[in-house]
Each structure stands twice: as C-alpha cells, then as structure tokens.
Write a structure and sequence with these properties.
The protein is mainly alpha-helical. The chain is 79% helix and 0% strand. The chain crosses the membrane at residues 61-78.
Length: 107
C-alpha cells in the first residue's frame, strides 16, 4: 500500500505515463488532422505514383532499346567485322603473290 497514492489507488508513475500518453496522442491526432499534413501526405503519395510510372516506362523503353540493338546493330557489327577480315586476307594474298595491293575505299 506504500506505493499507492491516497486518491484512486494508482501509483504516481502510472499517472504520469497516462498523462504523457494523453499529450502525445493529442499532439499526434492534432498533427494528423491538420490540412498541411494531408497536403504533404497527398504530395508524397502522388510522387510515389509518378515515380512508379516513370520506373515502369523506363523499364519498357530499356527493353525496347535493348532488343532493337540486338536485332539490328549486332548483326551489322558482325558483318562489318567479316568484311574487314576478308579485306585483310585479300591484302595478304596479294602481297604473297607479288601483285601491288589494291586499296579499297570503305563503303
């Protein structure tokens, strides 16, 4: 009975924590009900939606660019490399046979 106060039978630390929780809950409810809070929350939500759409469209664009590169550019690079090797081989054969090398202008 020494830890209980005279009124109500609740100890002092219990009253203080109840009072602090009351202040904290009142302040948080006041903040959460303010129009500035709702505007900030809406702005953050809109920013999240825009970021999600941007990432989604960027991913689609990267996929299109990557597949286009593989289909169109890589075969072109391979063909150019083959043509360069063929030109080098012709130059080697011409030098072995003693004929003057014919310089072919690039196309």
């Amino acid at each position: 009975m020494a830890s209980q106060s005279r009124k109500g039978g609740v100890s002092l630390p219990d009253r203080r924590s109840a009072k602090n929780e009351g202040i904290i809950s009142r302040v948080s409810s006041t903040i959460s009900q303010s129009p500035i809070f709702y505007q900030g929350k809406r702005a953050a939500s809109d920013a999240g939606v825009v970021a999600k759409k941007l990432l989604k469209s960027t991913g689609k664009a990267a996929w299109i660019a990557g597949t286009t590169f593989l289909i169109l550019v890589v075969p072109l690079i391979i063909e150019m490399d083959r043509e360069q090797q063929l030109n080098e081989m012709e130059l080697q054969q011409a030098s072995l046979l003693g004929t003057p090398p014919v310089v072919v202008a690039p196309k």
